[in-house]
Design brief:
Elements (H helix, E strand, L loop, with lengths): L16 E15 L4 E2 L3 E2 L3 E19 L7 E6 L2 E2 L4 H11 L9 E9 L10 H18 L6 H15 L11 E4 L13 E3 L12 E5 L10 H6 L7 H21 L2 H20 L10 H17 L4 E4 L5 E5 L4 H12 L8 E5 L5 E3 L1
Parallel strand pairs: 5-7
Antiparallel strand pairs: 1-4, 1-14, 2-3, 4-7, 4-8, 5-6, 8-9, 10-12, 10-13, 11-12
Helix pairs in contact: 2-3, 5-6
Bound molecules: ligand DP6.
Length: 360
């Protein structure tokens, strides 16, 4: 597949107006995407668990307009007009226009809400951009584009990537790879694909409890962070390491080797933050409570031998990952020892999910 496969042919139908709705989840990377080339091409492959509870629901209402000169849209979040989202969506539309040439023919109302509290510090770009891309794909279908379900998902992931890189891993589940990797033959830099190999029972219904450590606005956006990987002194080594870690995970997933899984996942999280601390300019997104939580997890793991581990996104919140069969004891520990380090004691219990759904 190349970019050209995603350019739409002429549409066979015309539409005056309509409405489509999709619900799309967030995802949590195990091997991280950090660093990109032009056109949202990742510097290294990444792999993520799709989540189940943290999601965005977006309705897209479209009305045919007179002229097709400019994009015309408004954004509503939780029932209120949200003009500060417009620049990001404008950029998204500009990037995808050649693949979705109907965009300037309609006025759009993008009505969106998240299941997680907004300004929780949970990135809504993955779920938000994928939900919007899926809505656009549904319109493309209504315009008469014939396509298989596989192509629909592939193009939805391709468009999502152009909105926000990690969003391309939210269309499907439960384990998604994005970025070319030599052992995963169908993997692509252009879109996410389902992880194609055997996964041991131990990883079924894996749990992710998200501790909301800091809900404030990040000082450095992901986009700026990605750019700081250009000319970063450790960039090449880091990109190679991501390839190696994904190779190692193939064996780990097959064997159900939880201890080796933990080592890779925690090392990936700390490496991501190490890249931030060693870029120029350097920055730190962890907070004191992030470190308190990490140390408590390590101590609890030493004492109990349970398979609890953490990962981090580009922020201070901590994702705690653990197998379903250890959930009762670990959740007890989280509630009694970790929740105190969260802002307003807020946390979200999530687990692996299977991707986006169309709402009728
Ligand atoms: C740290 O996907 O938010 O969460 O492509 O610039 O929108 P843009 O970046 P984004 O980066 C997320 C990076 C990460 C790691 C990951 O999800 O793989």
């Amino acid at each position: 597949m190349t970019e050209h496969n995603f350019i739409s042919k002429a549409y066979s139908k015309t539409l005056e107006r309509g409405k489509v709705t999709w619900e799309s989840p967030s995802n949590i990377a195990l091997v991280k995407y950090w660093g990109k080339k032009k056109h949202q091409i990742p510097e290294n492959p990444s792999i993520s668990f799709t989540l189940n509870e943290c999601k965005t629901m977006t309705s897209l209402t479209f009305t045919k307009k007179e002229s097709s000169h400019d994009f015309s849209f408004e954004v509503i979040l939780d029932g209120e007009k949200k003009d500060d989202f417009k620049p990001k969506i404008q950029t998204f539309f500009e990037r995808i226009e050649s693949f979705s040439p109907f965009l300037k023919d309609f006025h759009f109302v993008i009505d969106t809400k998240n299941t997680f509290p907004h300004s929780s510090g949970i990135a809504s770009s993955a779920s938000g951009m994928s939900a919007l891309a899926l809505c656009l794909m549904s319109i493309e279908k209504e315009l008469g584009s014939e396509m298989s379900e596989e192509f629909f998902n592939q193009k939805a992931s391709f468009l999502s990537r152009l909105g926000s890189g990690s969003a391309c891993r939210s269309v499907e589940g439960d384990l998604i790879v994005w970025g070319k990797h030599k052992q995963i033959t169908n993997s692509s830099d252009l879109y996410g694909v389902k992880y194609p190999f055997e996964v041991h029972e131990n990883f079924k219904n894996y749990q992710d409890t998200i501790l909301l450590v800091d809900k404030g606005e990040k000082q450095v956006s992901s986009t700026v962070g990605h750019n700081l990987m250009h000319g970063h002194p450790f960039a090449e080594e880091r990109f190679n390491q991501a390839h190696d870690n994904l190779s190692k995970l193939i064996h780990i997933f097959k064997e159900g080797d939880l201890n080796s899984f933990i080592k890779i996942v925690e090392s990936e999280a700390l490496t991501l933050h190490a890249m931030m601390m060693t870029s120029m300019p350097y920055f730190i997104l962890m907070k004191p409570n992030t470190l308190e939580i990490i140390n408590k997890i390590w101590r609890f793991r030493r004492e109990t031998n349970l398979h609890i581990c953490f990962t981090l996104d580009a922020g201070a919140n901590v994702h705690i990952l653990y197998p379903e069969k250890e959930a009762a004891q670990i959740l007890e520990f989280i509630k009694s020892e970790l929740v105190a380090f969260c802002q307003n004691e807020q946390y979200i219990c999530d687990r692996i999910g299977f991707g986006a759904k169309k709402i009728n």
